Amino acid sequence: PGRRVCSTNIQLWLICHPNCITRFFLFFFYALELIPYTRDPKAFLQKRGRLFGKNFAALGRVIVGEYDLLVGIIQSPQKRGYFVGTFLLVPRMLAKCFSLFLSDEDAGGSALHASLHNYFWADFVPPAMARIEEQEVVFTGYLKSGIVAQQSSEKTQRMEIEKMTIRYIFHAFIGTPLSDDSSQVDVIHSLMFSKSPMFNYVLGGTKPFSTLTACFQCGRNKDIRTIKNLIIESPLMSDYVPMAQTGNQSKEDFAEMIFAILGIAGVAGTSNLLLEVLTAIPVNAPIDLGDKKDVMFAVLEAARMRAPVNTVNVILPQAKTMIANGKETIIPAGAVVGGSIGLASLDPAMFEQPDTFNHHRDNLVKMVVNFNAVGFDPVGAGTRQCPGRNVAMKIASDVLTLSRNPDTFKAQNSNIDRSVHGHYDLLAPPK
What we know:
- The protein is of the alpha+beta class.
- It has 15 helices and eight strands.
- The protein has helices at 2-16, 20-39, 41-52, 67-75, 112-134, 136-150, 157-174, 183-193, 209-213, 218-232, 251-279, 292-305, 341-344, 364-367, 389-403; strands at 55-58, 61-64, 83-84, 87-88, 311-315, 320-324, 327-331, 336-340.
């Protein structure tokens, strides 16, 4: 605790006195705390929160866990930097027009983010939702196979959930199944979940790992080319031509952007959600599996208790006064603020007994802050809401229903009982 107190107080002082020297030391603290954070983000943040309150300095930035402040961050125009979660990235190592890096026009950015967001909402997600409904047997098969496989071994449980999510997400969005021999699944899995920056797509572009391993990333670069070619040759891009709506990107750049979105937001975020649905919801939770809304509420509560995506990073456009490290502090313009969805979702001022699973909370749907939005509504694109949230919710709702139905486990991969799954028109794509 003494070391954490010292580190946190020093970081806040550095943040409040910005210059090239203090920025260097903030990067040092970021690098020092990155590994313990990635081992267990929730535990890392909660330990700091117990010492300093809801908002504190850590990971080279101000972490905001106060619900009302986080809501203000989410609902205001966002000036973005090169961050994915807590990771600080080297721009040239990832997709050029990855939307998480793009600032809103009202926060000093261009109109590109709004154009891409509208494209994803209107032209990218609805065909995927339609494909899932039209090929219901196939997509239900992915889920049943994955649910059965993840039961076989505790050591491989997470991996089986991740691979199930890869098959489902990529088929839904690129329009064709991945290869039966699992080679394409294995390549994507390595890019998204390898613990080595020499192979992992995000870690390979993360400071300081990218600098230390750049000369040894031949495998990562080869895998990226493989998946880019897969996407270019898929039905999704069969008639692609550069246009203003997609930032006039070349086929290669557009394909890598699609991979980054499907891999980081689609696969990594959704697999985290599915792991919570399968492992964190109490066995005796009174969930009516025949009621689509009740199932949806259970998924939202699981996501509230352990956020699949933990942090929204923004750069303050102007100085802001807040309670940080337990005292009123003026955070200067240009400081990086990490809005912690995970901490805000456990704020006892908003959620009574926040560590207790209760999917019948009166304020759950209205106050939940996942999917970079305040409240959950399957209709409406917003400005920075996750366009694929309906797909994630559908997968998670189906997984919860199937995993608690004993008929699911009577079948093995090639001999799957298809009779359980039903339509989830509550989460149908917007018209």
